[in-house]
Specification:
4-stranded mixed beta sheet; fumarase; 60s Ribosomal Protein L30, Chain: A; 19 strands; 5-stranded mixed beta barrel; alpha/beta; single chain; 23% strand
Length: 507
Amino acid sequence: MVTIQQEDFIESVANALQYISYYHPVDYIQGLARAYDLEESPAARDAMAQILINSRMCAEGHRPICQDTGIVTVFLKIGMGVRWNSELTVEEMVNEGVRRAYLHPDNKLRASILADPAFSRKNTKDNTPAVVNIELVRGDEVEVTVAAKGGGSEAKSKFAMLNPSDSIIDWVLKTVPTMGAGWCPPGMLGIGIGGTAEKAMLLAKESLMDPIDIQDVIARGPANKLEEMRVELYRKVNELGIGAQGLGGLTTVLDVKIRDYPTHAANLPVAMIPNCAATRHAHFVLDGSGPVALEPPSLEDWPTLTYDVSTARRVNLDTVTPEEVAAWKPGEVLLLNGKLLTGRDAAHKRMTDMLSRGEKLPVDFTNRFIYYVGPVDPVGEEVVGPAGPTTATRMDKFTRQMLEETGLLGMVGKAERGQAAIDAIRDNHAVYLMAVGGAAYLVSKAIKGSRVLAFEDLGMEAIYEFEVKDMPVTVAVDAAGVSVHQTGPQEWQARIQSKIAGIPILA
């Protein structure tokens, strides 16, 4: 009979969470590198390059792939022959491992978990508690799978209770375009079919822990109906032309994973959960011999790329004018320099409440730009930790008031804007710039200074002022209201369909 020591379990969980914060799974890197080599869309190719370069930097520097270091989910298969030498419950041990990992002084991770979610939403400060799933199995080992799931991709999770006669493929193809780009494609889609509502969601999440192998399945041919469905969905989702970061292109998903379970005759539950460009998970086994330290991957598995900004337009944020902004073209790459304000959900809510009460804001936004970001705390000599963008659509409901009442000139965030925000941007001759989700460490290297200006009590959601040098962004909505997240996928879906039909494409 195997005995698992409390400290061995805690240390192993903490080690694994640190490991996945800066090492992508190698199968993801190989899949993305293949997609990068095949990509024909310049905008999508640029985004993939940033993700791959960022990933290598994180692997070398042991800093987080994404500023959103995720909510921790742990899947445990505990052998019924296992004994525990522990004063803590299994969940308490998991949470102690999370606590140690996220407060590690050499690589502190962002605490994103809020208690009392419906009301006070107070940060727990150490990213606990985790979501723990326990299964008792035969044997005398403990199998552990840890994952850190970003909020942007988790927010795009979908569930439907279909009729038994409905088409799962039709539902997926109808639903994926409604998810926008906030889940940071290219990534994976996990699909759960059957069971009950909660079982389908669990199956979808578990499927995302499986290795990327769709090219192997295609090469040898599907072995069963589920593999046939995987291949069909992989091809048809990519034919939608959504592309990397929603900019339009050939690759939206690197794989589609499916798990199923028997269900009631009257039901067809289907869940779909995307994994983003910062996919993070690892698997290990405890057998009583001590803690587990995962073997670092070889950097030879990462492509060596350089980011070419030779054709980008440099912008001085300290002197930029509305006339300059009006000249920027959709899809154009800019390099931002100067002082950049930050603020996201909590700061925007507080500011718009103040404006509605007729109060003066603590920061002057006239002709300024605001970056939707919640950075990781710095370590060592860093000015700021990884600082990639958060999903911009969450700020849509604040956009018109901010533009019309503060003199704000532009915004920087992740993924698309909704129509209400696009209309407000057009009406106020402002602009929305997109930074690449999944390139947080790369972005942070462009930040040369950082100070809190207001709302310090909000922690990572406070208003900072960054001093940036050559921070890469793409014009996603121009001053005329043209959105590349609308035009890009439309163009590339048409290109793909033309190629399938054998119709020549005129440049």
